[in-house]
Structures are given as structure tokens and as C-alpha cells.
Amino acid sequence: xxxxxxxxxxxxxxxxxxxxxxxxxxxxxxxxxxxxxxxxxxxxxxxxxxxxxxxxxxxxxxxxxxxxxxxxxxxxxxxxxxxxxxxxxxxxxxxxxxxxxxxxxxxxxxxxxxxxxxxxxxxxxxxxxxxxxxxxxxxxxxxxxxxxxxxxxxxxxxxxxxxxxxxxxxxxxxxxxxxxxxxxxxxxxxxxxxxxxxxxxxxxxxxxxxxxxxxxxxxxxxxxxxxxxxxxxxxxxxxxxxxxxxxxxxxxxxxxxxxxxxxxxxxxxxxxxxxxxxxxxxxxxxxxxxxxxxxxxxxxxxxxxxxxxxxxxxxxxxxxxxxxxxxxxxxxxxxxxxxxxxxxxxxxxxxxxxxxxxxxxxxxxxxxxxxxxxxxxxxxxxxxxxxxxxxxxxxxxxxxxxxxxxxxxxxxxxxxxxxxxxxxxxxxxxxxxxxxxxxxxxxxxxxxxxxxxxxxxxxxxxxxxxxxxxxxxxxxxxxxxxxxxxxxxxxxxxxxxxxxxxxxxxxxxxxxxxxxxxxxxxxxxxxxxxxxxxxxxxxxxxxxxxxxxxxxxxxxxxxxxxxxxxxxxxxxxxxxxxxxxxxxxxxxxxxxxxxxxxxxxxxxxxxxxxxxxxxxxxxxxxxxxxxxxxxxxxxxxxxxxxxxxxxxxxxxxxxxxxxxxxxxxxxxxxxxxxxxxxxxxxxxxxxxxxxxxxxxxxxxxxxxxxxxxxxxxxxxxxxxxxxxxxxxxxxxxxxxxxxxxxxxxxxxxxxxxxxxxxxxxxxxxxxxxxxxxxxxxxxxxxxxxxxxxxxxxxxxxxxxxxxxx
Length: 805
Fold this sequence. Notes:
By secondary structure, the chain is an alpha+beta fold. It has 29 helices and 17 strands.
């Protein structure tokens, strides 16, 4: 083994080694490769192992071939101190090579093989790329002076994976049974108490030697060793800061000075009695209260008032390449994608290609990961009457092909932010650990083993954009999505108007998106009474946003001090320019964020839902949903447009409101709703929409987001024909066609450019028909959807449907 690799003796020795190693039972005809690069962490065919050994030589210290069946010896000191550890490693390899346990309910052997590979890599040091042998490879045998903490957990798992659930059981090992049961617990929402009861019943039903944990706590300890755990980071109850890094040992928040620890009712009662009994000033009373509270906390185990659960990203990205099922798919965007100019995947989009051109070093390796970030709140208790919002931050790897990318199994939970209320603008506080990790993945990368190419490489990752509904858009981007400048794409050039009687803003002015010589630009009569000469606003770049947010000082936390409240009330807008920014988003800490063409996506799902509700509520005159009411007609009179719709006073207490062309009479409502009621769709295509139709009351209610999706894109063009005048129905049909084409899975740039001009025309036609109150910000955002699809690719990679499900 120590002879020169070009010598005859070395080649004869390799032949002897391979003949010896081939006698041992191998996995799929492969053996572990003991070369300097693989260090017995990779299973390869015999001929490939021969090539590796000729090219790189044996790894240092591998003189006892325990991975290949040679009995352990005690000839050296290092072997004497590590015999038990090496024997366990050999047993691990033998177990993985002999798949005795059934894989019907989970491929536990392959999962353990991934863990073994990672364990060996961690103990032997990170290897370089196989094309460049490392200058110095650590002595593997000398480094194994006993298992480290990670190795101990692995061997404990190995023991559980090799142990049958009970004597004679062929389908389950102890580990596979626990993993399967715990998966059922998670998928079906079982409580810890119910899961403990199930385990106790199963122990009574199965033979007495069944190896099941006695309760949920023991099961969680075993599951955690699989590397599926998370880190807990204490947070201020008022969302001011995290007790993390340099603040990890703080006892109170630096912003609001609230205690880090939770208190119970007894603490509050005792502190209240102390305040009454002590006839001291407010300051002394507060100190006594704090002292009493601290004494009470010291008497029992401290519990944080609020905890952020952070699921580290690096090990999960590494596992994508260490698994043979996903490693090759992570390179699909470069090796398997059809590059014919048609947009089917984010990799075909302008944003992706521009990013590649700007960062050539990153794009040169297709294994570097591109991620999308989705954030949303939900009620974990399933009780809509209970106001509670727990927030999730989920990451999506866009390297994967279309049939894997947006599947639930591909999503990676990154942060779990507890309620009971939404973090709102303070979400940047909780994003700190993730942003720190993303910065490290961009700057330094992480050594990762790629099983598809049998080599190690430096994996880097970049965040492409975020996906969220419109309120969360404002929280993540820092742009205020309410008020006069609610549109983030138009930015400070948002065209809005305050409705005196409606008491809200409307967002019209879509004529500026038309061609400069279009006749509508000078049509005063049917619009707002003015000529339109402005050009369409341009989506602000990252540099523009950096300039606009310069000097904004945002103090996080829901409990502001008196000084902070005074500063907040003070008017600092000396130049009186409109500013829609609440903060500079934490995402701008990423070195590449300002160079993205699109940073935050408008969610087509919620926009389509809101537009559908607007249309149906207005044409059917649904209570509290119609945009055509007395206030809307008074606003028309106040604006001095559409004189035929101005309300007229008749008598002292009566007002006549002329009927609009877009409202249906009872007969038309019956016809429209009857079409929707009788429609039948294939199983799995949509829910039963007929359940939402009430013919007697002439109303439609209870539509879910996907119901609105089907109605807008498929059913509305059918049901609306003949129910309304042609000019109204044609405008709504054009709107329906626009949504259907934007949501197509295959896009072309030429078609999207046509859609951009078509939707501007459609919205202008709607402005001539519907009152200003109809044009909420969600209706206005429709005009930007085709532009974003041209920049970032198909909508179904960037909307909230898979996230909400």
C-alpha cells in the first residue's frame, strides 16, 4: 500500500485487495471505496474503486481493512484504543449491505446509509473535489479514538435499526416502527397525549418483548437523532429582539425591558400584594416587584416567554445531494431542461438568466441551489372562532424539475414563529438566523457530497424571491400596502384617489399603461374628466429602493417606550415627498438582493380571489360585497362624471339611485346562478361549487380560493353571456381570459407582451363601466401580473396555493 502507485507491486496489491473485498457480501455489487477522496464513505462498483486507488491511493492509516471484512487486530496502539468503535462501524456497514428489514413501510437502510456517509465525512474531515486530491488527508484510524457525540447518536440509531420490533417480526425494526408511527402522528395531528396512549395500547397488544417507547417523549428523542430536529431561540414577548448570539445570556429585552421569562398567575398575585403592602414610591415598588418576580422564577425552572424554532438549512440542502433519489434532480435545471425559448420553469425566466450573467462564479456550478421563500400565518388549533396566528417560513428549492419542485415533500420548513398574533412588521427580527445562514451559504458555501457524481464540492445557495399574500408582502418588503401608495410596483407613482363618501382610496388611472397615441388618453367624458399624458411607471430596481430607504430607522417591537412614541409622532418629512416605506427589509443584507429583477411576488391566488369577489358581489348586488351603492353614486357626483348615475332626491327622506348597466335584474340573476348550480366537473378538478349557490336568495357565498379560480377562468365566460349587456360581458370575459393565459404552465415572451397591452385596455373598459369604488388595490394589481410572469416565469411556481395547502 505504501509503494509508488506506478509500481508493479502496488498494482498487484490492488488486485489482491479487490479480490479479497469482493468475497464480502456487497450492496448491489458495490463496495466502499478506501481511496484518499472517498475514505470509505462511498459505495462504488469494483472497477471504479480500482481506478480511484490507482489515481489517488489508499487513505492514510487504512491498514486493517475492517470495512471490507478483515478481522480487527490489536497490533497498533490506535487499534487498541478504537477497537469497539471500529467494530461498530464495521457492523454498521454490514447492516447496510444486508437489507434484512422490509422496505415496504420506509427505506430505513438507505436512510441510515446516508447518515453513515455523513458520519464518516464528519470524522475524517471535509474532502475536496475528487478532481483535485487533498494535500493532506487525516489518518482515519488515528482520528477514531472513540466516537464523538454525533457518532454515538448514529450508533444508537444503528442499534435500533438492526433490532427487530419483536422476535420473529420481519416487516419492522424498532426504528422503522417508531418513524412510521410518528409520521402518522404528524400527518393526522395527534396530540402528544393521544400518541402516548396509542404506544401504551400497542405495547399491550404486541408480544411482551416488543421494543416500543413508552411515551411520546422517548419517541421524540429517537426521532431527533435522525437529524430532523431544530434549535430553540428565545424571543422577546413583544417581538423586539432575539436572545441570540451576543444577547444569548440577557435576562430582559434591551428595547422594552420586558423579562425574558414567562410568569404565571401566582407571580402576578404576589407582586400585586407586595405593591399594596409596601407604601413606597413607584420606582421602589417596581424594583420590589421585579425582585419578587425574579425570586419566584429562580425557585423553579425558567421558561421563555416566547420561543422561535429554527430548522437549520445547511444539513437539509446537503441531504438533497447525499440521496441518490434527489441528487441528479438537483441539476435538472442545467442538464435536463429543454432550452427552446419557451418559459416552463423559473430557470427559463429573465430573472434567472440575468442573475446567472451577473454572478458567473455562482452559475458556473449547476449544483448551487436557488431558493424561494414563502411566509404565511395559520391557526394551528383549527378553531376559526379563536384568534391565533402562528407563522411559518418555508423554503422551496428551484433546482428541482417541475414534477418535484412544488410538491409538499420538497418544501423545507425554516422558521416557526409562535403566536398568538402575527409578527407583522417585526418579522425581520425572526428572520435573522435564516438570513445569517443564507449569507454564509453565499459567501463561504459548505462542503457537500454529491452521490450522483461521487465527489465533494462547495455548495452555495441564493434566495431568488419571496412568495406571500399582499399583507405579508408589506411585512417582508417594508413597503406599506395600505393608503395612497399601496401598489409596490408603481411605488411612489401609484395613482390613487380618496373617495369622499366611500371613505377609502380607489386605484384607477390605467390609461397611462396604454400606448402614447391611444384614443382613450384624451377621452375625458368616460373616465375622470381629465387627459392622461403620463407614461406607465417602471418597477423600481434594488438600487432605487436602497436610495428611497436611506435614513429610515425602524425600531422593532409592539410595545414602544414613551420616547419612541414621541419620535414616531414627530413629522420628519421636511420635503413633503410621499414615502411608502416602513423599513429597509432585512433581505437587503444579502449581498445579491439589490441585483434581483424581482424580489417579492404578487400572489395571483389572492388577487384572483379578491377580483372574483368584487365582480360577483357587484353584479349580483350581494349585501356588504357590492361596490355599487349610494356612497359610490355620491362619489360619482362629487367627481363630476357619469351624470346619468347621479342620485336624485325625491322628497325629504327619499333618494332615487339610477340602476347601473352592470347590475342584474332578478331574472338575469336566476339565469346566471342556475348555470353555476348545474355545472358538474370531474373528480379532483374542483370542489362542489353548487353548494355555494342559493337560488331562492339569489346569492352566492362560501367560495374558497380555488372555487374563485375555477369560476373566474372557466365558468364566468359561460354564465355571463346573455345575463349582462354586451359591453359589460365582453370586458369581464376579457378579464377571465387574461387570468387563464397568465396562469398557463407554458409561456412565451411574445404572448406576455400582448397580454400586458390587453389587460391595460381591459381595465380601461372596466373603468368606463364600474364605479371608482370597484377599483381596490387588488383590482389594480392585475395589471402587473403579466409583467411579473415575463420576468420570473410561470405563476404556479410563485403563488400561495401549494403553501396554503
